[in-house]
Design goal:
Shape: elongated
């Protein structure tokens, strides 16, 4: 925006007339873009995953605390969908329940009643679920007029958070929530699994593994490609400012927004094609940066030779070639 504003105000022409070449104007914007690149890369590699991890932990803590508050001693709790829970005694601090009865109706066609002397309420942050862990109890199952009894040491009832909180669905940890170190480890491990998979084992599990591996690979490249945009767009916009000389300020702003929209559309397309496996992420996410960077280098060379395209003249010719609406003549009555 700064260079386009300088171009539309003909300040770049004044600098050139004063003996300042386009290459002498490069150090300041390049230094600024390098600082932006370093800051953005630091945030991308470390702080994005940290922030998402803190959000997930906070949501899970709130869900666990709410579940502990909802369950009152000696009261049948129906606040959990398709689950009725009763506990004779409750320790709200530790989340431990005593003398528990649970009626689980999450399984279609089966009615499950669980009795246990002790249990605990906890959460699984990795899967984004609330967990009821029951200890040393019995499980009674009724289905189609048949019943069965099963004793257990540990029985776990899992509940997704979207059943407790509307519009909150954490699910399993996504690639964008992983730290850079975890991204590298996950990609290496999943790549080995894909390589060792035989042709006979390439079923739905293989497709799920491949889909997740592609998402991890896209995230790896995205962590570097977005910060690199600071450098690519800086090199691109300087010759664009020379080409925009003589334009109105509003037109220069529109051109800047259009160029950013083109860049963002290319990045989004590369992101989608990379996740689908249509295009390798190394190409799809880095191609927009390379196109704008190479376009900027060509533009710098043309601007240094004073052969930059006259965008104002091009727009005037295009506008002049457009058919103008004619007013209909109305005869005076």
């Amino acid at each position: 925006l700064t260079f386009l504003r300088m171009g539309t105000d003909r300040e770049l022409v004044a600098l050139r007339a004063g003996g300042v070449s386009i290459y002498q104007m490069l150090p300041a914007p390049i230094l600024f873009s390098l600082l932006c690149f370093g800051l953005t890369l630091w945030i991308s590699l470390h702080w994005i995953s940290w922030g998402m991890g803190q959000f997930r932990s906070t949501v899970m803590d709130i869900a666990t605390s709410r579940a502990r508050v909802v369950i009152q001693p000696g009261v049948f709790s129906t606040d959990f969908p398709k689950l009725v829970l009763f506990a004779r005694n409750v320790d709200p601090k530790s989340g431990t329940l005593y003398k528990i009865m649970v009626n689980d109706r999450n399984h279609k066609g089966r009615d499950i009643t669980i009795l246990a002397p002790e249990g605990i309420i906890t959460s699984d942050s990795t899967r984004g679920e609330l967990v009821f862990k029951l200890l040393n109890g019995q499980l009674y199952t009724t289905a189609k007029e048949q019943s069965s009894l099963l004793s257990f040491d540990t029985y776990t009832v899992r509940m997704p958070l979207n059943l407790l909180f509307k519009h909150v669905n954490l699910g399993s940890i996504r690639p964008r929530e992983l730290s850079w170190k975890d991204l590298k480890k996950t990609y290496a491990a999943y790549s080995r699994q894909l390589t060792s998979a035989s042709d006979n084992s390439k079923g739905s599990a293989y497709r799920d593994l491949l889909e997740y591996t592609l998402k991890v690979d896209v995230e790896r490249h995205k962590r570097w490609a977005y910060p690199a945009a600071c450098l690519a767009l800086t090199i691109f916009v300087l010759p664009l400012g020379f080409a925009a000389q003589g334009m109105k300020r509003q037109t220069g702003l529109i051109i800047a927004l259009v160029m950013f929209f083109v860049y963002y559309s290319l990045m989004s397309m590369g992101f989608t094609l990379g996740e689908n496996g249509t295009l390798p992420p190394a190409i799809g996410l880095w191609l927009p940066n390379m196109l704008f960077f190479l376009g900027g280098l060509c533009g710098l060379r043309l601007a240094a030779r004073e052969r930059a395209p006259d965008l104002a003249g091009i727009l005037r010719r295009v506008t002049a070639s457009l058919p103008l609406p004619h007013k209909n003549a109305h005869p005076k009555g």
